[in-house]
Amino acid sequence: GNSVTQMEGPVTLSEEAFLTINCTYTATGYPSLFWYVQYPGEGLQLLLKATKADDKGSNKGFEATYRKETTSFHLEKGSVQVSDSAVYFCALSEWGGSEKLVFGKGTKLTVNP
Amino acid sequence: DADVTQTPRNRITKTGKRIMLECSQTKGHDRMYWYRQDPGLGLQLIYYSFDVKDINKGEISDGYSVSRQAQAKFSLSLESAIPNQTALYFCATSPGGASQPQHFGDGTRLSIL
């Protein structure tokens, strides 16, 4: 079955540091890939997505590139801010059936001033 | 107003009680989902519905039931709550298609004593 494996947390960085959160996936077909962010006490919000190989999703300074050859979708940001502190989830969805989201376990990021 | 509204936001109840969690949406989406989030486990699909007459079990449906009262409303019930159903519950909507992101409510934190 489909699965997503992402970097275990927690991750603690200083403000303006570079961020990478690794995500790899297993899928039977050709999935769409997503990064969601969850701020404390809130639901999940879409951060970015990519729907085909070599697509780059980007939003709010975050980027991730759909790499079919390595089945990866790593999240990066060049300079994190305190306001980026949250839990980040990598997820995939495939056409057909429920089209449910299959999530990784989440990575908690804390950015210190 | 939020596009996807969940009520209640928090609930504490006792083992054996019947509980209903409600979800309503103003996005006009046909597809609605219920997920459960446990610490360190990501989100898992409980039930999903593609329209009012279409209800389907997800991967962890045992002990749960749902009702799709209208396009905009999708309720989750625990017929006889047990402590291991203590979790954070999320409702999500989608316009359909694996490339489309799902839109989440802010969640219901349920504690069963």
Question: Radius of gyration of chain A in whole Å, from Cα?
Answer: 14 Å
Show unreliable segments of chain B.
Answer: none
Helix content of chain A: under 10%
Strand fraction of chain B: over 45%
Quick take:
The complex is a heterodimer of chains A (113) and B (113). By secondary structure, chain A is mostly beta strands. Chain A has strands spanning 3-6, 11-14, 19-21, 23-26, 32-38, 44-50, 56-59, 62-65, 75-77, 86-93, 102-103, 107-112.
Structure description:
The complex is a heterodimer of chains A (113) and B (113). Chain A contains no helices and 12 strands. By secondary structure, chain A is mostly beta strands. In chain A, strand 7 and strand 8 (62-65) form a beta hairpin. Chain A is globular and about 45 Å long. Chain A starts with a strand and ends with a strand. The radius of gyration of chain B is 13 Å and the shape is globular. In chain B, the strands form 2 sheets. In chain B, strands 2, 4, 5, 6, 9, 10 and 11 form a 7-stranded mixed beta sheet that branches. Chain B has strands spanning 4-7, 10-13, 19-25, 31-37, 43-51, 54-57, 64-70, 73-78, 87-94, 103-104, 108-112. The interface between A and B is medium-sized, with 26 and 26 residues.
Short descriptors:
heterodimer; A: 113 residues; mainly beta; 4-stranded antiparallel β-sheet; globular; B: 113 residues; 7-stranded mixed β-sheet; 0% helix; 56% strand
